[in-house]
From TrEMBL:
<protein>
    <submittedName>
        <fullName>ATPase</fullName>
    </submittedName>
</protein>
<dbReference type="Pfam" id="PF08327">
    <property type="entry name" value="AHSA1"/>
</dbReference>
<dbReference type="InterPro" id="IPR023393">
    <property type="entry name" value="START-like_dom_sf"/>
</dbReference>
<dbReference type="InterPro" id="IPR013538">
    <property type="entry name" value="ASHA1/2-like_C"/>
</dbReference>
<comment type="similarity">
    <text>Belongs to the AHA1 family.</text>
</comment>
<feature type="domain" description="Activator of Hsp90 ATPase homologue 1/2-like C-terminal">
    <location>
        <begin position="21"/>
        <end position="155"/>
    </location>
</feature>
Amino acid sequence: MNDFLVDKTTKTVSFSREFDAELSLVWDAYTKQELLDQWWAPKPWTSKTKFMDFTVGGRRFYAMVSPEGDEHWSLQTYTSISPKTNFKLLNAFADKDENPELPGSEWDLTFSERNGKTTVRISIYNESLARLEKMLDMGFKEGTAMNLKNLEELLATLSKQQ
């Protein structure tokens, strides 16, 4: 992740990452609960999905769980899905009872494959500058870099199993 960009004028964060894995495997890692929970949290935190319905209008409700058991919940609602090329979602922090903490952010994830390598481009628009700054203050850049490293390792393991 060398192109992490923060644009405060558009309240957007964007970045991309190339993985040494086929598109279908990377797509699955982003869209299947059992795979997401293996990489979607910076270590030593873990990801715990309570439910996930990867359909337009469907939702994922999950927590990042600290080693001490602290849970930080988020609610994602899928707004658009073009299989294996793009999906969009609304993301909001939430309490344990699924009540979103608005404003949230709009995520746009685009997938492409070239010569057996898959690139994921992510753009995150925040409804407010305060939310963007809160996200960055919470360590979003560093956490995302750790998550993507987790994903890289998972993809390497899964690629060997195919």
